[in-house]
Write a structure and sequence with these properties.
ten-stranded mixed β-sheet; 2 domains; about 600 residues; nine-stranded mixed β-sheet; magnesium; TIM Barrel; Alkaline_phosphatase; Alkaline phosphatase; Alkaline Phosphatase, subunit A; zinc; single chain; alpha/beta; phosphoprotein; elongated
């Protein structure tokens, strides 16, 4: 009984994770009002279907009110015949199904007719996976035992039942939600109503029977609340939507377990009216505002990224599509020219365009690219390659060999060969890069996720060492990409999105720390596009919990944020096109180019 002494917040936390994994069921309330009764709910794989029945002129008629009765809509035609067919065809795959018959006329006469009708369907009444439950007008409690073994009852009370034979005839406990709360399913239950409702559920479960509320709000917020609180049958008039929602909660609700230690900048050099010497451009692939929000809320409400004050928004459309891909967006940022989707460093006519690493290398900059993708991936290759299609792996790899890059770190890729011939000294330990004196270095990330804490530190470690390597006698330009935020967005995997966003923020912290120490480095953090159409309808900051809802497995056309820190960071405020980042970077460096 010590459990009962836990604070409400703790009980909610425990209920949340037990309930999401519990054997909850969906109840299709007033199913006969669906445009395709029975089959719509059955196809949605609900576990309970409700039908209202009137006994009139010797027939069991299906309707909500007397005045709605139609001659051909009988219990047998709408429910018993389809159920028998589903069982005969083995369409139920032995899953449990409860048919709850809500009796609207005299309990005894109607129930007598129901029993007589059911006797025509031995495949239903003898099936161990099907349960017939009588609700609405019912005989006296003590009389439940007088009915056939295949008839069960809906007990609409919280009072104890001491007769074990009677208790065995009770299939579930149901009460009206309206008796305890007027909540409409929007926002949250008040704490007072929450306590009332949870107390009702606890009392019902003392009978050791499944529990259902009727007269409930019918929304995602309500469904999740009832699942979290341990309601066994979720009442709904939208069976398909409800099943899809509650069955996916286990995949869309994540409790974060890895964190980014928030770095608080000094702001000594921020917005200084002087040209920076170095540029660190950081791209969170697919990292839209909601992805950032999910990481913020899962990371105790703050990130190193969200400490920054110079903030803008960029529009991401490509030259030939409303919704960009990473190649079109990466090329726009790297070259200052919007191009077609799939193009890498080429314009709409397929001609090469100079990119930032090429332009800055000619101006005496050391340049590098770090990515958690393969180096031939669409975003990183936009900063050194010139190909008409991102799928030209061998050709992009050959462009790396002739590039002006002094540094690259990426996932291993079989397409990249002969790095040593191109002058890159390959390092097996990223930590050795900082002290390296070689003219060109490269390294592969260890992609093993078994050590999660080590994995999420990879990008930060690479960023720190890459900065140290490039920061020698020359100014430098470094592009750092957190690529896997996009991958998990495509997969609609919120846990992966949050983890990769935390990893990216750790790298952001390293860049800002360096900018504070150096006082002459501009850090710009943005995204190429948003991925997944992510929303976060619910969560709990204190529990590091996020519930995600994705609208697509692809990119979207929404604007994405730009954060900047260091000298001239204010130039990146406002709303503008993604290709303007290129011009802004060259402008703050006081570099002019002729295209």
């Amino acid at each position: 009984m010590k459990f009962l002494k836990l604070p409400i917040a703790c009980l909610l936390f425990i209920n949340m994770f037990v309930a999401v994994a519990q054997d909850y069921k969906v109840h299709s309330h007033n199913d006969y009002k669906q445009n395709i009764p029975f089959w719509r709910a059955f196809g949605a794989e609900v576990q309970s279907i409700e039908v209202d029945v009137f006994y009139k002129n010797g027939k069991l008629m299906v309707a909500h009110e007397q005045g709605e009765i139609e001659e051909n809509k009988t219990l047998e035609r709408l429910y018993l015949n389809p159920l028998q067919e589903a069982l005969d065809l083995n369409l139920s795959a032995n899953r449990s199904l409860q048919l709850l018959i809500d009796v609207k006329t005299d309990a005894y006469k109607t129930l007598e007719a129901i029993v007589a009708s059911l006797k025509k369907y031995p495949s239903i009444i003898n099936n161990k996976h099907v349960k017939i439950v009588i609700s609405g007008n019912r005989p006296a409690l003590k009389e439940y035992v007088d009915y056939p073994s295949y008839i069960y009852f809906d007990y609409q009370s919280l009072q104890p039942v001491t007769d074990t034979e009677v208790l065995d005839k009770i299939a579930l406990v149901s009460v009206s939600f309206k008796n305890y709360s007027e909540w409409n399913g929007k926002g949250r239950l008040t704490s007072q109503d929450y306590n009332k409702v949870t107390e009702v559920i606890a009392q019902a479960h003392q009978l050791k029977k499944p529990f259902r509320f009727w007269a409930t709000p019918d929304s995602k917020s309500a469904w999740k609340a009832f699942v979290n609180m341990g309601v066994d049958f979720i009442n709904t008039d939208m069976p398909n939507a409800c099943v899809a929602y509650v069955s996916s909660l286990k995949d869309r609700v994540v409790q974060n377990s890895v964190f980014s230690e928030v770095y608080h900048p000094s702001f000594k050099s921020d917005k200084a009216q002087r040209s920076p010497e170095n540029i660190i451009l950081m791209i969170g692939d697919g990292n839209g505002l909601t992805q950032i929000s999910s990481a913020v809320l899962a990371n105790n409400g703050s990130l190193s990224l969200t400490q920054l004050k110079s903030i803008g928004l960029i529009k991401t459309q490509s030259a030939d599509d409303f919704t960009t891909d990473s190649a079109g967006a990466g090329t726009a940022i790297a070259t200052g020219e919007k191009t077609n989707n799939r193009a890498i460093g080429t314009n709409i006519d397929g001609e090469p365009i100079p990119n930032l690493t090429e332009i800055l290398s000619k101006k005496g900059f050391s340049t590098g690219v770090i990515t958690t993708d393969e180096i031939i991936g669409a975003t990183p290759s936009s900063f050194f390659a010139h190909r008409t299609d991102r799928g030209m792996a061998a050709e992009i790899a050959s462009d790396l060999q002739t590039s002006q890059l002094k540094l690259f770190i990426s996932q291993p890729t079989a397409a990249v060969k002969n790095n040593e011939e191109a002058g890159f000294v390959m390092k097996t330990d990223i930590n050795t890069i900082a002290a390296s004196t070689e003219l060109k270095v490269g390294a592969w990330f260890n992609t093993d996720k078994k050590d999660l804490s080590g994995y999420i530190q990879n990008l930060a470690m690479a960023t720190k060492n890459g900065i140290s390597y490039l920061n020698k006698e020359k100014p430098f330009f470094l592009m750092v990409e957190g690529a896997k935020i996009d991958s998990y967005g495509h997969a609609n995997d919120i846990e992966g999105v949050v983890t990769e966003s935390i990893s990216f923020d750790r790298a952001v912290a390293e860049a800002i720390k360096f900018a504070d120490a150096d006082q002459n480095t501009l850090v710009v953090i943005t995204a190429d596009h948003e991925t997944g159409g992510l929303t976060i309808p619910q969560g709990n900051v204190g529990l590091h919990e996020i519930e995600a809802d994705f609208t697509t497995n692809d990119h979207t056309g929404v604007m994405v944020p730009v954060f900047a820190y260091g000298p001239m960071s204010q130039e990146f405020q406002g709303v503008y096109e993604n290709n303007e980042i290129f011009a802004k970077l060259l402008s703050v460096l006081d570099i002019t180019t002729k295209k």
